[in-house]
Amino acid sequence: MYDIIIVGAGTAGLSAAIYGVRAGKSVLVLEANTYGGQIINTPEIENYPGIKNTSGFEFATALYEQATGLGAQVEFEEVRSVENHGNVKNVITGKETYEARSVILAAGAKNRHLGLPHEEEWLGKGISYCATCDGAFFKGKDTAVMGGGNTALEDALFLSNYCNKVYLIHRRDQFRGDSKSVALLEEKENVEFVLNATISALLGTDHVEGVEVADKITGEHRSIPVDGLFIAIGQTPQNQVFSGLVALDESGYVIAGEDCKTNTAGIFAAGDGRTKTVRQLTTAASDGAVAALAACAYCDSL
Q1: pLDDT at residue number 298
Q2: pLDDT of residue 161
Q3: Which one of 79, 99, 133, 259 is separated from 188 by 20 to 30 angstroms, measured CA to CA?
Q4: Distance from chain centroid for Cα 12
């Protein structure tokens, strides 16, 4: 019987593990793939307070070693389901059934990909899914944003403050995001809308040198030289197996506020997989701390 079982060994999950074991609780972290989550593939991190510069791999490895060094147990097993039996929760993997007094869901979310050749290969070589994370690396350069929702509009606005030119590419003739953001972008001299278009190819040798866009109406193809492409077509939360355990919103995110509490007693949510506005390393770490301390308090109340 563990005090806390954490599903997911990303920034939120490992931060929760650190706070849990430091509070004197027995903690098990279950991870289907490898520790670190999405950040492990990021070449450079410059926006985490107190760390001037590091790589995603170095950051994730340091977090993992800190958590395990303090006494957190980590097992690389895929969680198939979580059952709520009141004061006891059963976490079922492909190998074992584990028991815990509380559970923290930190499975995260995956960025939706365009599915183009070189997209994953050139991640960190011009391909990014986070403008606020990587935008500063493209100061004075030409970039493109793919998407039509609020995230894409916000990314384009953010990049317009750094970049020489920003192309905002959207597959429809109107954006789905806020009209106020669209109006602000229309006033930007260095922002160009490329509407009714999709990206048909990534151009370059071993990194992004441009994108090829196809006009959905005319069928014409156009090459746009850019140094970076920011893909903002949404995320997919990894919460399918929790659908009968806690309330999810229409997009599949666990409904939980800044206290990280779900609608099920003893079940908490942390990181990119919960309902929130800002999804960054700092907020993931913050969620981990909040969820762990809330889980500790819950265990103490039993």
Answers
A1: 98
A2: 94
A3: 133
A4: 10
Catalytic residues: 130, 133-134
| 291 Cβ contact list (under 8 Å, min separation 6) | 12, 16, 104, 106, 260, 268, 269, 270
Is residue 233 within 8 A of residue 114, CB to CB? The reply is yes
With tokens 């050749």, the residue in question is 117
pLDDT digits (tens, 9 = 90+) for 116-169: 999 999 999 999 998 988 899 999 999 999 999 988 998 999 999 999 999 999
Residue 43 clears pLDDT 80, i.e. is over it: no
CB count, 10 Å around CB of 58?
13
Q: What is the pLDDT of residues 288-302, one digit of tens each?
A: 999 999 999 999 999
Q: Rounded distance, CA 199 to CA 215, Å?
A: 9
Specify the DSSP class assigned to residue 112.
Answer: P
